[in-house]
Amino acid sequence: MTQPVTERSLRSAEDLDRLIGRISGKGYKAYEDLRGGYDFGDFLLFLERIQGDPFASPSRARVSVPAEVASFEPALWRNQARLLALEDFLARAFSRAIRSEIRERRGMGSSGLIAIDAGGQEVLKRTALEIHDGCVEARFAVGLPAFGRRIDGEGAREMLLRALPALVRRSLVAKSLDLGALAGHVRAIEDQQALRGALAGLGLVAFIADGSLLPRQSGVDPRPLKSADAVPFKSPPELAVKIPAPNGGEVSGMGIPRGITLIVGGGFHGKSTLLSALALGIYDHIPGDGRERVVSNPATVKIRAEDGRRVEKVDISPFIDGLPLGRPTRAFSTDNASGSTSQAANIMEALEAGAEVLLVDEDTSATNFMIRDARMQALIPKSCEPITPFVDRVVELKEDLGVSTILVMGGSGDYLEVADQVIAMVEYEPRVLTNRARTIVAEIPTRRQRERPGRPLREAALRGRRPHPSSFDARRGRREVKISVKGLHTILYGTTAIELEGLEQLVDPSQTRAIGALIHALGERCSGQSASDLRELLGAVFEEIGRKGLRAVCGGLQDLAMPRLLEVGAAINRMRTLKVALEKK
Fold first, then answer.
1. Rounded to a whole number, what is the largest CA-CA distance in the chain?
2. How confident is the model at residue 148 (pLDDT cuts 50, 70, 90)?
3. Which residue from 252, 460, 468, 526 has the least number of CB within 10 angstroms?
4. Distance between CA atoms of 474 and 521, rounded to whole angstroms?
5. Which residue stretches of 132-260 are H helix?
6. Distance from C-alpha of 567 to C-alpha of 509, rounded to nearest angstrom
7. How do 357-361 and 300-303 pair as beta strands?
8. C-alpha distance from residue 395 to each of 138, 226, 417, 440 (Å)
9. Contact in structure between 264 and 422 (CB atoms under 8 Å)
10. Among 259, 266, 247, 270, which residue's Cα sits nearest to residue 206?
């Protein structure tokens, strides 16, 4: 929360100017004299951490704009969806103002840098900008200016007394903003959350609005494809639905019902593009993204094979049993999982964490895990094959656990037998071929035999695993706890790396940073609650986030974005230090 203007520790902008003059030309550590709060009249500036030298991590600062100065209409933050949208819009506005006001860097290292964690195409709850009862707080990095190891006083004066106030007043005050664009941003996020919230009541797991633009610029550029080749989405009549949105009226599009949905079609016709859009439909998107009205069940998980990952005592016996040399699969552990064992473990861990929809693409799956055709069954009898393919358990997922599955499949017609609906992508347009698929199944029966061992999925999925407190040691020898991230997919946790390449629904390194902090927070709770299983520990941490906020639970760290419980659980399961005890079954 904002510190009150009347707080005695606050100094004035004039005091800051005099302090800068006093330390100009001195050694860099003299910047420590600037730590504290400053009253600029219409906002407060807090210099909270000062970097040790120009090449160290930038300093951290916070500005607080009182509600009466920010002057945002209460209607803009009257519910959680609108509050999220307003915070997101202001963070992006602050980032744009930086690019406009900070024209060049001065000095060495990070000198002259101002940066805020503003995000990309997805709208995430972030610690970089928070609004409390209309009061706006922004947290950002500041590279205090220096030449060599000496303070650049004029550069600091330009940054802190001229540029920074200008960008605050330009981006965090209502009268300086495009209020039409702000209102549109808020309405778009509120509508997306309403569409997503309506899915369960309509018996749907996903919805793609007509006119959505699904293709992206490239594999490394998540912006929408701006090309005549980008075909807007159009719902097939058989799956067309209309969902009311609070601001956009009725939104028409394709609803994907609960159950087993097969997405088929020729290569390069848009199957995987559609699945990728559904995978990221768990997030809200900025207006103009093209996917801002593509929504999925919030507990949707993309499943893939993940060769080489570690697995710790996961019950994969519903899919793999009877391994050579009597190796157990009801508490399967390995430091180097194969494609099939990793995919089985990924499914069971997702179910343990509460997944309600599984997305599977044959291109990133282990072939022997997905299917064993009649000829292979004839060649290798079941007595010699430990794998029960996914095709033989997907119906059980639906009927016994209520878990739906959406599969992209172009090479195996055996999945036609178990599909509730079949959607073909033809030149990027969906067509419903469910009836045609059933006719083909009747006309061309498969000769493969269904393979199913006795181990029920429900029994294996609900088996509790209790992490041992020693799993969460983030110290580096005698050094204090050290957790850092390297890009989107690597957490350096103490002396070990947690690799997250298999978590395709992570979209922002700030989520990864939050996952590292939440693993540590969960570890601290684990030491005092050794009887709690992983599902209970995750639930307790996220319940605390709901009460206190992400930053409080993560020890006040900055530049965090909200991950899902599912990704935090998946990251813990990939820790090479994880040790668990199993509940007896």
1. 89
2. confident
3. 468
4. 11
5. 153-157, 164-171, 179-198
6. 13
7. parallel
8. 49, 40, 10, 20
9. yes
10. 259
Helix (H) or strand (E) holding 400: helix 394-401
The count of other CB atoms within 10 Å of the CB of residue 494 is 17
Contact assessment for residue 170 and residue 101, using Cβ atoms and an 8 Å cutoff: yes
pLDDT digits (tens, 9 = 90+) for 205-257: 999 999 999 999 988 899 999 887 789 999 999 999 999 999 989 999 999 99
Contacts of 60 (CB under 8 A, 6+ apart): 48, 49, 139, 140, 141, 142, 558
Whole-number Cα distances in Å, 122 to 101, 279, 348, 450: 25, 12, 28, 42
How many residues appear in the chain? 585
Backbone angles phi, psi at 197, to 5 degrees: -70, -20
pLDDT bucket at 5, cuts 50 / 70 / 90: very low
**Burial (CB count <10 Å: 0-12, 13-18, 19+), residue 464:** middle
CA dist 85 and 435 (Å) reads 42
Task: Give the integer Cα–Cα distance in Å for 284 and 292.
Answer: 6
Residue matched to tokens 């969960």 = 522
Distance from C-alpha of 575 to C-alpha of 502, rounded to nearest angstrom: 13
**pLDDT at residue 6 in the model:** 42
Q: State how far the Cα of 53 lies from the Cα of 31, in Å rounded to an integer.
A: 10
Assess whether pLDDT exceeds 90 at residue 54.
Answer: no
Three-class SS state of 87:
helix
Distance CA 486, CA 495 (A): 14
Q: Are 489 and 515 in contact (CB under 8 A)?
A: no
Residue with tokens 């996961």: 314
Q: Tell me which residue has tokens 């956009």.
A: 248
Reference 466, options 543, 538, 542, 530; nearest CA is: 530
Q: Closest Cα to residue 96, out of 119, 62, 67, 77?
A: 119
Distance of alpha carbon 481 from the chain centroid? 24
Name the token pair of 86. 């307003």
Give how far Cα 547 sits from Cα of 511, 541, 542, Å. 19, 10, 9
User: Are 219 and 320 a contacting pair, CB within 8 Å?
Assistant: no
Tokens of 214: 């699904």
How far apart (Å, rounded) are the C-alpha atoms in residues 141 and 559? 9
**510-522 confidence digits (pLDDT tens):** 999 999 999 999 9
- Residue 9: alpha-carbon gap to chain centroid: 39
Give the C-alpha separation, 193 to 561, whole Å: 18
Sign of dihedral through CA atoms 18, 22, 25, 26?
A: negative
Nearest-angstrom CA–CA distance, 323 and 310: 18
